[in-house]
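>> received
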Amino acid sequence: MKYNYWDDLSGDDESAATYMLSYGEGPGCETRVVIGSFINDGESVLDVGCGPGWNMDHFAEYGPRVSKYKGVDYSRRFIRAAGQRRLDYDFVDPFQLGDCRELTQSANTWDVVILQDVLEHTNGYEKPVKEALRVAKKRVIVSFWHLTENDDHINDDGNDGWGAWYSRPKWEEFLNSLPYVWYDTKTSEKANRQHDFYVIGKESGEKLRHA
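>> returned
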């Protein structure tokens, strides 16, 4: 896997470990609370684009009580930083280097797959979403902070950096082409960062509860 934008952005392992805190996006923030509201106690979670591991810390402190957790990220620096966090969990090898477009997990092996603020950095969402749906048993949770009401704006420079603001109508058209139900919601106006959330349910009759 090539050295990438995110390794450069983070600077060093210490700054990678605190990335997102300056945005108010650490454990307990509304973004993670909303994501957690779509996960039930006892479910397993694959966290794709996990960064330095804030979701695992959030679940440990605020819930839900997940049965199994694996964080995957494209950045070696983020994975190193995540591995150096307090690991007072019962999860074996919870962080792994990987690419959201080519997940190594087998089909239908994780109850929930999270794609939190990932797709804007992949310059295309079809492949990562289909990969997430392949490995998920129950649902996939997607969050965006940049959606447009018009056309896509994609900076396809090959570095997976700040690459894409996607068209909401086109994104929802893509969701409607999938053989699954989906639900959307937003953070409140008081949130540190505004997000759109989409939950795609794989199971027949899956009920997506409101955050």
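>> The helical segments are 5-10, 13-17, 30-37, 54-62, 76-83, 126-135, 168-177.
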